[in-house]
Write a structure and sequence with these properties.
CATH architecture: Roll
Number of helices: 4
Number of strands: 10
Bound molecules: flavin mononucleotide
Helix content: 10-25%
Strand content: 35-45%
Oligomer: single chain
Structural class: alpha+beta
Largest sheet: 8 strands, antiparallel
Number of domains: 1
CATH class: Mainly Beta
Length: 167
């Protein structure tokens, strides 16, 4: 198990377009008994309601959504580029039907009882502040609905960043 240190959020200096959009991340939720993770490339970080937040978008069909919905927390783990294959795996297999973590060669770690990826090098531990299911009537640009042809809508979760961990 790797050793992680709390990292001051004001010293974070990453480009979210690269880090989330291009390198991807793993969103995890659950308990020490049972947790799940999935790859994300949509989301962001910022300030809302006077707090430092991260936001993610999770479709109805994702097994990970059940874990996010049934608890108060989720984590976002960033991994070194050498783990791209593992991220690809976690973005194309469901934990509903297999032990995705071990098949991807990843292991769990926990802080504040929140599961995160031990192979990560930067972790955001988040407490859910809001969950909003996006619906077609909220889309202002006509080309957005092409992303939802099958009705598998996203829920936007905003989480307060409780702690940043660095390896
Ligand atoms: C690069 C990449 C980015 C992804 N981004 C998201 C995302 O932001 N939101 C989402 O709901 N699914 C996203 N997915 C799809 C899920 O990761 C995928 O469906 C996964 O198998 C769900 O696993 P689960 O059923 O165990 O939760 C992405 C997949 C890949 C490969």
């Amino acid at each position: 198990m790797h050793s992680f240190q709390p990292y001051p959020i004001e010293e974070l200096s990453f480009n979210p377009f690269e880090k989330i959009g291009k390198d991807w991340a793993l969103v995890s939720a659950g308990t020490k008994q049972k947790a799940n993770t999935m790859t994300v490339s949509w989301g962001g970080v910022g300030v809302l309601w006077g707090r430092n937040v991260a936001y993610i978008f999770v479709r109805d069909s994702r097994y990970t959504k059940e874990f996010i919905d049934s608890g108060d927390f989720f984590s976002i783990s960033f991994l070194d580029k050498s783990y791209k294959k593992a991220l690809d795996y976690c973005g194309s297999h469901s934990g509903r039907t297999e032990d995705k973590m071990s098949n991807a060669g990843l292991t769990w770690n926990y802080k504040l009882s929140i599961p995160y990826i031990d192979e990560g090098n930067l972790i955001l531990l988040c407490q859910k502040l809001s969950a909003t299911r996006l619906t077609e009537d909220s889309f202002l640009s006509p080309d957005i609905k092409k992303w939802y042809a099958d009705g598998d809508m996203h829920t936007m979760y905003v989480g307060e960043i409780l702690e940043v961990l660095a390896r």
